[in-house]
Specification:
Layout lengths: L10 H6 L8 H11 L13 H5 L5 H24 L6 H9 L2 H13 L3 H19 L5 H18 L2 E5 L2 H6 L4 E6 L5 H12 L6 E5 L7 H7 L2 E4 L7 H16 L4 E2 L18 H12 L5 E10 L5 H8 L9 H6 L10 E6 L3 E2 H8 L15 H20 L2 E2 L1 H9 L6 E3 H17 L7 E2 L4 H10 L3 E4 L6 E4 L4 H10 L5 H12 L2 E3 H19 L8 H15 L3 E2 L6 E3 L6 H10 L3 H17 L6 H18 L10 H13 L4 E2 L5 E2 L2 H8 L7 H10 L4 H16 L1
Parallel strand pairs: 1-7, 2-5, 2-6, 3-4, 3-5, 9-11
Antiparallel strand pairs: 6-7, 6-8, 10-13, 12-13, 14-16, 15-16, 17-18
Helix pairs in contact: 5-7, 5-12, 6-7, 6-12, 7-12, 8-10, 12-13, 16-17, 18-19, 18-20, 18-21, 19-20, 19-24, 22-23, 22-25, 23-28, 26-27, 26-29, 26-30, 27-28, 27-31
Length: about 700
Amino acid sequence: MGRTPDKESSIWKLIFSESWSPRGSLRQLFTILLHGRNTLVRFGQPLSLRELAADAEDDERAIRKVSRVLRVHFRQQREMAIGPDLSHRRTQVEGILDTDSVKAAIAALAAEQGGGATAMRRAEEKARHYAWEIAADYSYPVVRVFHRFLTWVWTRLYDGVELGNFDTVTGVAPDHEIIYVPCHRSHIDYLLLSYIVYQQGLMIPHIAAGANLNLPIVGGILRRGGAFFLRRSFKGNPLYGAVFNEYLHMVIAKGFPIEYFVEGGRSRTGRLLQPRPGMLAMTVQSYLRDSSRPIVFLPVYIGYEKLFEGRSYVGELMGKPKQKESLFNLLMSVRELKKNFGKVHVNFGEPIKLAEVLAEAHPDWRQEPPLGESRPAWFSQGIKQLGNRIADGINSAAVANPVNLVSLALLATPRHAMDEDQLVSQLDGYRRLLSAVPYAGRARLTALDGRAMVAHCEKLRLIQRHPHALGDVLHFYPEDAVLCSYMRNNVLHCVAIPALIACLFSRNASLSREQLANLTRTVYPFLRAELFLRWEEEELGGALDAYLAALVEMGWLAESTGREGIYNAPNLNSDEYAQLMLLGNAVRPALVRYFISLSVLTQQGSGAVSADELEGLCHLLAQRMSLLREFNAPEFFDRAIFRTFIATLKQNGLAAEDEAGKLTFDAKLRNAAAESRYVLSPDVRQSVLHLTRIDRGTMEQALARLAAKGKA
């Protein structure tokens, strides 16, 4: 069948396009002639005629039942491919203005401006302007042009797009409203996901795009490809909020698939950002108004081997202002088409049913009255749980590709260089570990062995070879070492627990299962908050045992023969010990950051600094330490990571805020800081302690300079 939805009253569209209106023989003929090369054939699950007709009283009723079942099935399949019946954009806008909430917002704005017919007319025109600014203008011809253009772009940029678990989408599409929630690594993300969905024969989603992308020419093209635009903040503008909420509700109520990024913006470090509640809350509000069609969220992991915007991300982390989107910058990026960016991996996670999330937060949510201006506690809690489940779902669909694993190995060395055979052995070890204990059921792992991974990264010009008589040395190109920390962070969560175990054995030759469990339990809440690890605390013991068994099987740890439950590190001079230490180095920078935060807080004293002051100080101290020691990636001193750590301290009862907004703590926090001796070497601990001895006057001056720099 042809795949264009009915949208406009053009005679050509009516005659030649697939639509929801009845079709005669002539129109079917023209459709076949015009759209014959754009035909989609999908085979559904077989239906048993015997089962369908089993309870029918006679043949006539059996025929009616079979006919009814098939009509429902074919309607669902058509809706999956071409979307619901779509009204003209002008009709959408007028329908939004006619809703009670928008009328009330218009009346409120008119009253603020003095009332009267003129004020009312101006407020209504403002609302109409907002609606036109927001609404998508889906155009099938533009989508077809996009499809052809992007096919050419992917061929030029990438060696291929590897797709995983798409059967998940086709499984839920017939009877669910789909909200695609991918991670946000690049501007390529939304183009790539829409392309894949279209290529697989489904209706492309309407995409929530930032108003900064509503550029001349470009904005119109994106809008016709299904993008609708929203501003960064609705604060102080209730009319805009009312218009946007009604538009979103209209799209959801009609059954259009939607796509948005819960992180809000693109990640500059490669880690997932904390989920933003805005779009999630508006989606849930819409569902509470009309829950007749179930909503399912589909987490999507998108992994690149080389990143289009990588260098600008590094600059921003180093303190440069964020580059503003413009038509000129877009045209300049065309130069990148000459480069090879390797493969892209797109993997779909476990569907998250909104009704189930709401039932966990508040079993009686269906009986609640419509939400007003104030949000009940269960609603906020449900949004938080939903955001965390989406982040966990994205990470659980991670793909460990060759670039991720090579970056993980080389960045663990002081000079980001390794002997070729040692690197190959380390990569094969990572593959064995991730094969023995997959991070999650939907996670994927490259099929290449260590030597093939090295060759792949050499082909991409990510690493270079230094010939040597005793064996070639492989290292990053100088300009790519920092960029590869981004790729390592994409899959850091997959090795976080075994890397923490390895870190513990770097300072302790022998540890009992109980000691390992206690020390892991202390650090885990902070690693989980930073990396969105999937295990609940009660599941941590099972994960720990699985990883210990795998490390013993690999020879990277050994069980004590005479003492049950005791684990030993390998011989200090063995290859296995070196490999274990490299694994531990993957999370060591995170542990150093945590110790910096705890050291600053304990040295300043309870009730001495606020959360914002502590965040700023930790950022400055980590920045300084990165200049003095080996932690030279700008993501090491990213403020967002310290913000998450401080929030986790408060959430876990290790710190609290007094009436003046200062952080208070007791002996539990000091004990947590003291346990750093089990994971950090004495020289690192001493460096941190020396670095964090700052008096109040110095601290205030540093914070003032940081604030002035932020304003500038």
